[in-house]
Design goal:
The structure holds two protein chains of two kinds.
Chain A: H1 12-15, H2 25-58, E1 60-65, H3 70-85, E2 90-95, H4 98-109, E3 122-128, H5 135-144, E4 148-152, H6 153-196, H7 198-206, H8 211-251, H9 254-257, H10 263-293
Antiparallel strand pairs in A: 1-3, 1-4, 2-3
Helix pairs in contact in A: 2-6, 2-8, 2-10, 3-5, 6-10, 8-10
Chain B: H1 6-11, E1 13-16, H2 28-38, H3 43-56, H4 72-84, E2 90-94, H5 102-117, E3 121-125, H6 129-133, E4 143-144, E5 147-148
Parallel strand pairs in B: 1-2, 2-3
Antiparallel strand pairs in B: 4-5
Classes of the chains: A alpha+beta, B alpha/beta.
């Protein structure tokens, strides 16, 4: 006979009346988990979008050689290309081939735009090394090709990047708030459960039950409620995310499509209900032990 | 006493409350088994002693009944069985025979007496002096509004009056 910190064993389930899901707590946790997963997914998606934006376009410059005379345009384009290749800040550089140019212009000018007399600028796409600034290229390129115009993609993407970053932090803030609200819900549920079962707790105490033994009864009950709520909330959120993902995919937008989910993102989201159960157990235990400490 | 030591101390004391304080959603069997479960006794080890105790207090056939379906006397016997099942060092009983018939009252007092012979200190609060007098070795003390009036046990052996 050891007693001490042991649980009541198989009789645990019978010591507290009412089945699981008797109160609103599992459903409140389900709603909280749904919102937490959606907010976390938004945060992860926006992080992914910000990263791919930075990697895809943010460190790129586009050089347009605007010279109307085709021969001089070709000569300027070749000199600009050569100069860019020799510039240390440039990681890679390529001139857009005619097929690619035609594909780009087709929505506006129709098929065969390059075959007519319309002067089409030569386009050069350059990828800079991380941290390099497009301003440093400007003088070198215009020296080689006076009619060249340099478009810094990072410059016009910066406000969008800042917006995405702000939204990402907002989403993470919402996740933190949801976690706090879930903890507060568990505190209230634990206190309500203690009040409901006060007479049983008094008898258990009089029989010599320790606070830890009594706390385990409630901890187990609350963990089961949190597990149910977490699973339901996560399943609903995952379904919503899959539907939204399909809708975004159908739009064919590169920007929205860049907010994609990797396996790691899904793993992080799956960890949320598990962490939720752990949080609920810890909060319930701390709340109950504190309340029991004030009882005789 | 430090709070940490209270559980261990309480396990050494069995208490029969006047209002029984049974756990209403547990069966009579589970109520009686409660002190053993609190003490961490394995389920297989407590079935026998609890069943035996239930039979001893005459409730073997009502083991699965909830307290609400038991009469006052039956509830009292469950409360007594619960108080003594773990063989406490001290038993405190508040009016333990108040709701039982005279025959059962004698059986319960016999149980208390047996526990006392095994080393348990038994403290019974009662208004039934006649019943307590039937146990020869007992000390009888009178409490009046929280004050012990005859700490020498003079209630059992009142001093002779000078004129008698």
């Amino acid at each position: 006979m050891k007693g001490g910190q042991r649980s009541f064993g198989a009789a645990d389930r019978r010591l507290l009346p009412e089945g699981r899901l008797a109160g609103p707590m599992p459903w409140v946790i389900a709603i909280m988990m749904f919102l937490t997963v959606i907010a976390a997914a938004a945060g992860l998606g926006l992080s992914s979008a910000a990263a791919s934006l930075g990697a895809g376009l943010g460190n790129r410059v586009t050089v347009q050689v605007l010279e109307p005379n085709p021969d001089r345009r070709e000569a300027e384009a070749a000199r600009a290309l050569e100069r860019l290749r020799r510039t240390p800040e440039v990681e890679s550089v390529r001139r857009l081939p005619p097929e690619e140019m035609e594909a780009l212009l087709e929505p506006w000018l129709g098929a065969g735009a390059l075959d007519g007399d319309l002067p089409i600028p030569a386009m050069i796409d350059a990828r800079l090394i991380p941290g390099a600034r497009a301003d440093t290229l400007r003088s070198a390129v215009t020296e080689a090709a006076p009619s060249a115009r340099i478009d810094d993609n990072g410059q016009w993407l910066a406000p969008l990047g800042r917006l995405i970053s702000a939204l990402k932090w907002l989403a993470l803030g919402l996740v933190a708030l949801m976690i706090g609200a879930t903890g507060a819900t568990v505190v209230l549920a634990a206190r309500a459960a203690l009040d409901t079962h006060r007479s049983t707790i008094e008898v258990l105490h009089l029989m010599g039950a320790t606070d830890v033994q009594v706390a385990r009864l409630f901890q187990r009950r609350i963990a089961l409620d949190a597990l149910f709520g977490g699973a339901v909330g996560f399943a609903a959120a995952a379904l919503a995310l899959l539907v939204i993902g399909r809708r975004i995919g159908a739009l064919g937008s590169d920007l929205l499509g860049s907010a994609n989910f990797t396996g790691t993102s899904w793993l992080a989201l799956t960890a949320l209900p598990v962490l939720g159960v752990g949080l609920a157990m810890l909060v319930a235990r701390a709340t109950i032990l504190r309340a029991l400490g004030r009882m005789l | 006493m430090p709070r940490k030591r209270l559980p261990g101390f309480r396990r050494r004391i069995g208490v029969v409350f006047q209002d029984f304080r049974l756990v209403h959603h547990l069966s009579a069997f589970d109520n009686v088994a409660l002190p053993l479960r609190v003490a961490g006794v394995d389920e297989k080890d407590l079935q026998g002693p609890v069943s035996e105790m239930m039979a001893w207090v005459g409730l073997g056939h009502r083991a699965s009944a909830r307290p609400a379906t038991l009469s006052g006397g039956e509830q009292q016997r469950v409360a007594i069985a619960r108080a003594v099942i773990a063989r406490p060092e001290m038993l405190v009983a508040d009016e333990p025979t108040g709701n039982v018939d005279p025959e059962m009252a004698k059986r319960l007092l016999h149980l208390f007496d047996s526990l006392n012979k095994l080393g348990t200190t038994v403290v019974v609060a009662t208004h039934d002096l006649h019943l307590i007098s039937s146990i020869g070795r007992s000390e009888m003390l009178r409490l009046d509004r929280g004050t012990l009036l005859d700490p020498t046990g003079a209630l059992r052996h009142p001093p002779r009056r000078a004129d008698s």
